Each structure stands twice: as structure tokens, then as C-alpha cells.
Amino acid sequence: MKISGKTRVCGIIGDPVEHSLSPVMHNAAFEELNLDFVYVAFRVRREELGEAIIGARSLNLHGLNVTMPHKNAAMKYLDEIDSTARSIGAVNTILNKEGRLIGYNTDGIGALKALKENGITPKGKKLLLLGAGGAGKAIAFHAAQEAEELVILNRTPQKAKKLAEALRKESNKKINGNAFSIEIMKKELRDADILVNATSVGMHPDVNQSLVSPSLLKPDLCVMDIIYNPLETKLAKDAKAVGAKVVPGIEMLAYQGAASFKIWTNHPAPVKVMKQTALNKLSESGVYY
Ligand SMILES: NC(=O)c1ccc[n+]([C@@H]2O[C@H](COP(=O)([O-])OP(=O)(O)OC[C@H]3O[C@@H](n4cnc5c(N)ncnc54)[C@H](OP(=O)(O)O)[C@@H]3O)[C@@H](O)[C@H]2O)c1
Description:
The protein has 289 residues and is an alpha/beta fold. It is 39% helix and 20% strand.
């Protein structure tokens, strides 16, 4: 990688951020397409977010990814927010367009693309989504436009209900939010086609946890767990064991990254390279998120 005075700088802001997979993924993609870009990680403390974003404009950084805990708070420092990110209420990507900072959210796009690229089309199907946190909201927004029925279950039921209510206003699909309970899960899974786990249950180091009892899983279910550390979660293993189709979280990671890459460079991203680089980095072990 050659850095010159013309090299465009992209990066990720978050806290913590040192274990992010995005720098290796994006730098591999820039190199693959021979683009004069570089991507670095910036640890930004919560109380310094405003200064960091204003500074990014002053330093003429070209693009940023935004991760925990800044996805919501970053919005108020931007000049423009695209309508999808505004509906979701969070940004994970910022483009510096001639000094104007524009916010986007590519999490839901990445999740839906990961499903489709793995042969799973939500159109006409019932999608059961576990989680109404940052990623859950983004996935729900896109799933509500495509699936025939969307059910969102969340530990804090008010969040799932509020999200479902907001989505119902913009969609004519059947959308409901509810609490987690064995009974509700059992009922909703009976006729579900796609199950997406967008909670952090099962993430490293709690790798033996899953919100779904293996007895509720069935061979004709498609399961995507958006957690990518571990690469194969307990839910994914249980789903595979009953013969269900499984999409790992690394797929969503690569496709949400690919969508950010396109926003910054205007080039279709080399997704295969991005995925493989992230996989290699994860396989080296350690805690990544
Ligand atoms: N593959 C990807 O590209 C990608 C992208 C983004 C995130 N992720 C992963 O997705 C996961 C969620 O990320 P996020 O940004 O949405 O986090 P978040 O905003 O903090 O949301 C966490 C979600 O998990 C639920 N939850 C946490 N602990 C729980 C428990 N013990 N029992 C039941 N539910 C629990 C929360 O429920 P409450 O609302 O009740 O707290 C909430 O729905 C993380 O593991 C993250 O690494 C993956």
C-alpha cells in the first residue's frame, strides 16, 4: 500500500475499536481494486464524539464507519441523513461529500443481501427477528419492506412493540412485536420461514448460549445469526444439526461493509476478498466485534 499526499482516508469511530475487523476488510478491498484509499480505526470516547466528527470534516477524511456506542449520537453532528438511516434512527456510515457529512445505515442492507446471496428470499415469507437493538432495528426496517410477515421478539418487549408500531405505519405487511418467552417463541416459530438472531446472545465469550431451544428448530427453517464471533454460534450449530439452512454473521459483516465501500468509492466492492480477509483475521483468533 502506497500512501501519498492524495490518499483518501476512511476509518471507523467507536469505543472500543481496536479489535474491529473493518480496517483489514476495507484495506484489502482498496488494494484489490488498486484504489488510493486507506482505512484506520479511531478510538473516540463518548464525550468526544462531536469534536471527532467536526475534526473529521476539518481533516477532510473521506468516509467513516460508526460503531458502538456512537450509532445514534453521531446523527446530530451530520449535515444530512439519508431517509433509511433516519427511519432506523442510527448511522453506521458517513460520507464526506465536498465538506458535507452525509449519514447512511448499511446494516439492514447487508443483512438482507447476505440472506439473498445465500439463496433465501424473504418475499412472501414469515421472518422472525430476535432483537430490537441497533442491528435489529436496521434489519427490521428492510425486512418489513420485503417479508410478508415480520415478528420481532425482544427481551425488553416495549422496544419490539414500539418498533413494530413504527414499521406498520410505513408498510401494509403483517408486523408485530412481542416479548421473548418459550411459549411465544414456540408459537411464532411453528410457521416461520426465516429466523434471524440480532441479539448479542451467543457472542464470545458466552458461546454456549442460545435463545432458541433446539427442539423448536426444523429442517425447513432458514437461520441467520448475525453474530460473527464465534464464526459458528450455538444457534447456528443447533440449526445445522436439524438440517436447517444457516447463514453465518460474517456474511452480513461483509455485505454491510461492501455497501459502505460503494458509498465511499462508487465502485462495487470485492465482497469475496472482504469476506475472506475477515475470516482469516477471525481465524487468527482473539476477540473481534
Ligand atoms: N454481522 C454484522 O455485520 C453485525 C452488525 C452489527 C451487529 N452485529 C452483532 O449483533 C449483535 C447485536 O448488536 P447491536 O449493535 O444490535 O447491539 P445492541 O444495540 O446493544 O442490542 C443488543 C440486543 O441484544 C438483546 N440482548 C442482549 N442481551 C440479552 C439477553 N441476555 N437476553 C436476551 N436479549 C438480549 C438486547 O435486548 P434489550 O433491548 O432487551 O436490551 C438487544 O435486542 C452483536 O453481537 C453484534 O456484534 C453484527
